[in-house]
Amino acid sequence: MKIKSHSMPAKAGETQETIPLLVTENHETLPGIIPFFSTRHGGVSQGNCTSLNLGQQVQDDPQAVAINRQRIVEALGEKIHWSSFLHQVHGTTTVTADAHPWPRPPEADAQITRQSGVLLAILTADCAPLLFADPQERIIGAAHAGWRGALYGVVESCLNEMVAAGAYVNQIHAFLGPCIHAASYEVDPPFYNTFAAQAEKMRTDYKKFFSKQNNIGKLRFDLPGYLRERLETYGLSKERIHDAKQCTYSRNSDFFSHRYATQRNTAPCGRQMGGILLV
After folding, report:
1. What is the dihedral of CA 185, 188, 192, 193, to 10 degrees?
2. Element holding 63 (H helix, E strand)
3. In angstroms, what CA-CA distances link 166 with 205, 206, 237?
4. Would residue 165 count as lying in a domain?
5. Mean pLDDT of the region 260-266
6. Backbone angles phi, psi at 164, to 5 degrees
7. All residues at 6 or more sequence positions from 279 whose CB lies less than 8 Å from its CB, including other chains
8. Distance between CA atoms of 53 and 177, rounded to whole angstroms?
9. Contact, 115 vs 173, CB < 8 A?
10. In terms of residue numbers, what domain contains 232?
11. For a disulfide at 274, which of 63, 98, 122, 181, Cβ 3.0-4.6 Å?
12. Residue 45: predicted pLDDT
């Protein structure tokens, strides 16, 4: 199953807008489940957050963020009871979203639900958004997987909670969204050493996801490759792991990239969404 760009109409006031989303090409194979990834296009934010910024902690106008989030809801064209956002902290905690909105976003980096109409939202700007679905048991999940979360087990945390809720590993589909890729992800030796220090706790060979640079002392890290390996090690089949294959850094005109913005002294930048919904 491939991922393609798909435009969905959304009304904003009295005007008709187009919100470009990345959606599964053959989504009919997952009846009643909508996984998607937003781009940075189709919103009303200005400046470094132009234009579909969905993050509230990036010095954007709160009203603009609210309009942008509503446009996503309207673009999906489905009955959404509420959108579940998290206070993401690059950790591994997974929470369960039920039929009622949070009093305040919980401090967590992954969430699951079996409630229809609850949009699970993950915000990113180089980290990887990961979406999960067991279409038979109708259980979905979403995780924020930067290098820290990936290394320390956010993938496994989310999948463990799904399985505990009744999902089956051999039925779960995973959708890996736009994130920074190896060609743009230069890291220092201490970064590598952090992975080396966890080697005995991991069931995967981390070394193969680091490649040497021509300049001395620099490496490149393959975040999506590392995540795919963790998913396969957990037990997901390659055929059920769907990769958008989009680099946020190299495609910074289409996606927000924290690294790109930081290097050009334009941080903070906006955030895009990985979202999944049971209908």
Report:
1. -160
2. helix 62-76
3. 30, 31, 18
4. yes
5. 97
6. -60, -30
7. 32, 33, 34, 78, 79, 116, 117
8. 16
9. no
10. 3-185+222-278
11. 122
12. 98
Closest CA to 141 of 10, 234, 259: 234
Q: Domain total for the chain?
A: 1
Phi–psi pair at 146, nearest 5 degrees: -80, -175
Q: In what order do the strands lie in the sheet with 241-243?
A: 94-96, 110-113, 139-145, 128-134, 173-176, 241-243
In a domain, 11, yes or no: yes
**Pair of tokens at residue 155:** 């993938």
Task: Give Cβ neighbours of residue 62 (< 8 Å, ≥ 6 apart).
Answer: 56
Tens-place pLDDT, residues 194-249: 999 998 887 778 999 999 877 667 899 999 999 999 999 999 999 999 999 999 99
Global confidence as pTM? 0.95
Q: What is the CATH number of the domain that holds 167?
A: 3.60.140.10
Is residue 203 situated within a structural domain? no
